[in-house]
Amino acid sequence: MNGQFKTIICPIDFSQPSETALAQAVAIATQCEAALQLLFVVQPMPVSAFGDGMLFNELNALPEQSAQTAQALLAKLRDKHCAAIAGRTSLHVEVGVPFVEIVRFAREAAADLIVMGSHGRTGIEHMMLGSVTERVVRKAPCSVLVVRDANRRFVMP
Q: Which of 13, 17, 74, 100 has a CA positioned 20 to 30 A from the CA of residue 80?
């Protein structure tokens, strides 16, 4: 498998499924001697979610504060999981709609592979929350490896 993948992106949402996917991404990056890019997407909250007392400047500062926090958390995950490939691992935080930013980032990075976790939501939960993973699979410019949560069972709606 040496050289099959050169650039691997692993979107992180700090959930257990994304950490499991990170372990898989590290294994593949190690085997292929690939670069691994960890990506977190800050999704801005709609203005209507805030009370009347919130100032516009406070609203604009939220994604920046979230991005700083996410960068620190990504660094902790890198230190925990990526020691073997630390020199080939980079951290990225984007702001926007998660599936859109993941696909855009993969295109701009000329990624060969996206490795991401799946929460395994079904039924009403899937209908209400949607699936970032499903949308990425449909729109990605490269192959996508979906690492599922082995503890989640499919429940017929």
A: 100
